[in-house]
Amino acid sequence: MLPAPFDVLPETAYRVLNLDAGETLFRQGDPSRGIFYLITGSVRLLRFARGGETIVVHRAGPLETFAEASLFVDVYHCDAILEQAAQLVELRRDPVLRQFHSDPLFAMALTSRFATQVQTYRRRLELLAVRSAQERVFTALAEGFLTGDIKTFATEIGLSHEATYRALSHLVRRGHLIKTGRGKYCVKTT
Amino acid sequence: MLPAPFDVLPETAYRVLNLDAGETLFRQGDPSRGIFYLITGSVRLLRFARGGETIVVHRAGPLETFAEASLFVDVYHCDAILEQAAQLVELRRDPVLRQFHSDPLFAMALTSRFATQVQTYRRRLELLAVRSAQERVFTALAEGFLTGDIKTFATEIGLSHEATYRALSHLVRRGHLIKTGRGKYCVKTT
DNA sequence: CGTCACATTGATGCCTCTCAAAGCTTGTGG
DNA sequence: CCACAAGCTTTGAGAGGCATCAATGTGACG
Questions:
Q1: Which of B94, B121, B136, B174 to mutate to test the interface with A (most CBs of A within 10 A)?
Q2: Which CATH superfamily is domain B6-103 in?
Q3: A window 139-158: Cβ near strand C (< 7 A)
Q4: Euclidean distance between CA atoms B97 and B170, whole angstroms
């Protein structure tokens, strides 16, 4: 049920929560209880600017963790509001930290997970820096971002799905890509 | 000289390198020697698509670390080429891992650093999802992304510096921002 | 006082978003 | 087995906004 590396945690280290859309998971300034793993649904992490404007810091979706840094700081730095009803796991801070100190393998795995995420996000940021839709789509494809359907893919790379479809067919016409099926493409090997 | 948490490492754990533009730091498939901290200059991390195209995975600048995940995997997964001549620190893998295992505070600090970076990158990704230049600039400002000059700021938030300047003056005119000096702005408190 | 890099504003063109509509697939229920 | 619905795929037309090129202003520093 829990993804690695959290699967080694004892049952007392976490609990499953079922929350409805609109409910508040935590608020900015609350003492941090732990980090969260989302099974289904979605959560928005919000901060508030001094002018009163709401700023979306992050939108967490299924199978993602969030509020990781709360392990190492004492209070949450943003609000977490349920966007859709969700089932999620609260990984309690103290047991996780205890595991971190007593189990070097867990510590390594956790750190490795974060380090890998850092690199993944850097890749996505570099991807979004590519201005041309065609080039961006090609790069994203070559980097393996296309896992589900095209619309999801389009959102992930910051393009409208129409622009993505057009870029895809251009790339096929130009011979850079091969269409292998409905919504399936692969990079042409020279 | 080294930033936290690396400042606790013994002198034998790292060495300083001076490299010229165009030199190769490591190649994809090379056994991983460690992670790097860039003092000055810049490094491009590259992967190669099957069609032979070069893909920029990341561009590291001064005071950044990169190749963090190499601590936990055996080989590098991309090439590192010097974009500009650079002075950098190679943090050797084995001593760092040894410190990680023997020094819980170091382990925590390292993990905390990665977790914080994850959140920073998520914020930037969410920021880049904002289409309107004005809204993006405002959000970025409210989130404290403006630290250095405007051109750097513009690059970080994925806009041309001209568009950024225009958005800034619009926001000032509309009363959302206050110009506090040449290239200095702050969010208006209501 | 001259140079350099940043800051600022103007004009133009292109690219992508947006709205719209029509094929195509798949799944569901009668 | 067929009909229909729903959602993805694909293509079209139009408009707006940002990138780009260009030029000038301005502050810092030697």
A1: B121
A2: Jelly Rolls (2.60.120.10)
A3: 158
A4: 51
B169 touches strand D (CB under 7 A): no
Domain spans of chain B, in order of start: 6-103, 130-187
pTM score:
0.94
Nucleotides of C under 7 A from a protein CB: 6-11, 15-20, 25-26
pLDDT digits 0-9 by tens, B117-139: 999 999 999 999 999 999 999 99
- What's the CATH number for B130-187? 1.10.10.10
Q: Which CATH number fits domain A6-125: 3.30.450.20, 2.40.10.10, 2.60.120.10, 1.10.4030.10?
A: 2.60.120.10
Kindly report, residue by residue over A7-29, the tens digit of the pLDDT: 999 999 999 999 998 999 999 99
Query: A6-125 and A130-187: same fold?
Result: no
Output the distance from A111 CA to D15 C1' rounded to whole Å.
Answer: 48
